């Protein structure tokens, strides 16, 4: 499971010219799921994301977590995070999970993020989404659950 985590002052998802989700201060999480991912990855990643100290305290030091600031979360599925680009110019997405594997894991990830007591919004799995954001900082962190060490 790969997550691209962006600290945002606002983010939104639009599908077919209709805004379906919008958040203010918080995290935009682009989530890529592969066939080998499981509930252990979800548990580890959600805990890591919720507690990442990437928000500024009163001294402008990144010392606060999403939970500390009472932030919101927007989770967007993005299979292209698993693109393989070594051969040729057309990326291969063979590592990305098929929808029958990815959808339940995506939904479980969202539910687990909700368990931290913060509002969690989503895009629509598999839809052609337009994601808008104002990256605050900018702060962007990439976490791969296959590299926990």
UniProtKB/TrEMBL annotation:
Its EC number is 3.1.1.96, 3.1.1.-. The keyword Zinc does not apply. One of its GO terms (molecular function) is D-aminoacyl-tRNA deacylase activity. It comes from the Bacteria. Keywords: Cytoplasm, Hydrolase, RNA-binding, tRNA-binding. It is found in: Cytoplasm. It catalyses: a D-aminoacyl-tRNA + H2O = a tRNA + a D-alpha-amino acid + H(+); glycyl-tRNA(Ala) + H2O = tRNA(Ala) + glycine + H(+). It is an enzyme of class 3 (hydrolase). A motif (Gly-cisPro motif, important for rejection of L-amino acids) lies at residues 137-138. An aminoacyl-tRNA editing enzyme that deacylates mischarged D-aminoacyl-tRNAs. Also deacylates mischarged glycyl-tRNA(Ala), protecting cells against glycine mischarging by AlaRS. Acts via tRNA-based rather than protein-based catalysis; rejects L-amino acids rather than detecting D-amino acids in the active site. By recycling D-aminoacyl-tRNA to D-amino acids and free tRNA molecules, this enzyme counteracts the toxicity associated with the formation of D-aminoacyl-tRNA entities in vivo and helps enforce protein L-homochirality. A Gly-cisPro motif from one monomer fits into the active site of the other monomer to allow specific chiral rejection of L-amino acids. Homodimer. Belongs to the DTD family. PANTHER family: D-AMINOACYL-TRNA DEACYLASE 1, D-TYROSYL-TRNA TYR DEACYLASE. NCBIfam families: D-aminoacyl-tRNA deacylase. This is D-aminoacyl-tRNA deacylase.
């Amino acid at each position: 499971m790969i997550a691209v985590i962006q600290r945002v002052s606002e983010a939104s998802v639009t599908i077919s010219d209709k805004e379906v989700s919008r958040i203010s201060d918080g995290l935009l999480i682009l989530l890529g799921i592969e066939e080998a991912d499981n509930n252990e990855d979800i548990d580890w990643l959600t805990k890591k994301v919720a507690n990442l100290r990437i928000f500024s305290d009163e001294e402008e030091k990144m010392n606060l977590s999403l939970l500390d600031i009472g932030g919101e979360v927007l989770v967007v599925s993005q299979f292209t995070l698993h693109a393989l680009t070594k051969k040729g110019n057309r990326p291969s997405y063979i590592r990305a999970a098929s929808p029958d594997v990815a959808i339940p894991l995506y939904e479980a990830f969202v539910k687990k993020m909700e368990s931290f007591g913060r509002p969690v919004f989503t895009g629509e799995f598999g839809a052609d989404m337009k994601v808008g954001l104002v990256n605050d900082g900018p702060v962007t962190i990439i976490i791969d659950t296959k590299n926990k060490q």
